[in-house]
Design goal:
The chain is mostly beta strands. The chain has three helices and 22 strands. The longest helix is centred in the N-terminal third of the chain and has 20 residues.
Length: about 350
């Protein structure tokens, strides 16, 4: 399984090389000529342009990392990469502008880049990296409208089994729906019918969030490949399917599936079938804690037939959630390449 990568070449590579030189100079000034700052591992990335190879040891440099645009194309983005420095970091924890890039300096001295998204601007507001729509955005948002924010304390499992601090982007439903549509438009094979925007709103948490992948998600009597999101406290679980038919919350108390949220379209199909016309309806969200709604425990099923907005809060859950395919006997992979991402950064859905 190979994570999605897109390559910018030709004149774009030359432009990136020029950006590298300018950004390096800015960073050297920012740290007072001392050593570099260690970075959070953001997974595999493209090799740095040749023009950056002369940077002295310990000097932060930039490497090209593709960023997914809302039109399905990619543009190179600056991603900080640096070597450790002796002694404590000279940066304070928080977001900072480094050249034309916004980054987060973690309290351990690592750097987490904030991705750029075509059609959105990102600025620091009250200590948070907030996305707003610009005048040319393709999402139908008015200029200046809130579109989401970046949460730095997110680690994500990689295709090689390693774990990387990537941060996470939490976006409103209209933006997520457009990004999902773009991804699915480029994937026409039977194995590429799903793309998972993580259905939990993590904006209110300050604790670490972990996104991982395994083959032990329980659905009924069998295991199924899944993506799991672990978090602290209780967070909103939201609708993630753009063309949904509503939702059913099934409160079952069956070990790792104390609750399930499933699209009613799925309930009308044979248990071992896949409906390619409504493939996203095959996704099911579930968890192993007692679900709540408006701070009250849910003791019976909730049935909501009829289309609901992507991002609508369905329940609140504690500790973790998982996403698998609700198809009996299916072992189709839901690994890192099936997660909606901006570059290497996973996309979460904002609640509404």
């Amino acid at each position: 399984m190979v994570p999605r990568r897109r390559v910018a070449a030709g004149l774009t590579a030359v432009a990136v090389a020029l950006i590298v030189v300018g950004a390096t100079a800015v960073l050297v000034a920012g740290v007072g000529g001392g050593g570099g700052i260690p970075t959070g591992n953001a997974g595999p990335s493209a090799s740095p342009p040749a023009s950056a190879s002369f940077a002295p040891p310990g000097t932060p440099t930039f490497s090209a990392r593709p960023v997914v645009s809302s039109s399905g194309f990619s543009t190179p983005s600056a991603v900080v990469s640096a070597s450790p420095i002796p002694g404590p970091s000279q940066r304070t924890t928080g977001f900072a502008q480094v050249g034309d890039a916004l980054v987060y300096f973690a309290d351990d001295g690592s750097i987490v880049p904030v991705p750029k998204i075509d059609g959105l601007d990102v600025k620091v507001q009250k200590g948070q990296a907030v996305y707003t729509a610009n005048a040319t955005n393709p999402f139908g948002l008015r200029s200046g409208a809130y579109a989401g924010q970046f949460v730095p304390a997110v680690s994500t499992g990689q295709a090689d089994g390693s774990n990387a601090v990537t941060g996470g982007v939490v976006l409103v439903g209209t933006v997520v729906a457009a990004l999902i549509s773009d991804e699915l438009a480029t994937s026409k094979s039977d194995g590429n019918l799903w793309i998972v925007a993580l259905p939990v709103d993590i904006r209110s948490t300050t604790a670490a969030v972990q996104v991982s992948f395994d083959d032990f998600g329980s659905l009924g009597t069998g295991n199924a490949p899944r993506v799991q999101v672990r978090f602290s406290g209780t967070l909103p679980i939201v609708e993630m399917i753009p063309e949904n038919a509503g939702y059913h919350v099934l409160v079952e108390g069956l070990g790792s599936t104390v609750w399930q949220v499933i699209d009613p379209t799925r309930l009308g199909l044979p248990t071992d079938s896949i409906d390619p016309a409504h493939a996203m309806n095959e996704l099911v969200v579930y968890g192993n804690s007692t679900p709540t709604l408006d701070s009250s425990a849910i003791r019976r099923d909730i049935l909501h037939d009829g289309r609901v907005p992507l991002g609508q809060t369905m329940i609140d859950a504690t500790g973790s959630l998982s996403v698998s395919l609700a198809v009996a006997g299916s072992h189709l992979d839901l690994g890192p390449d099936k997660i909606l991402t901006i570059g290497d950064v996973p996309v979460f859905v904002a609640s509404s």
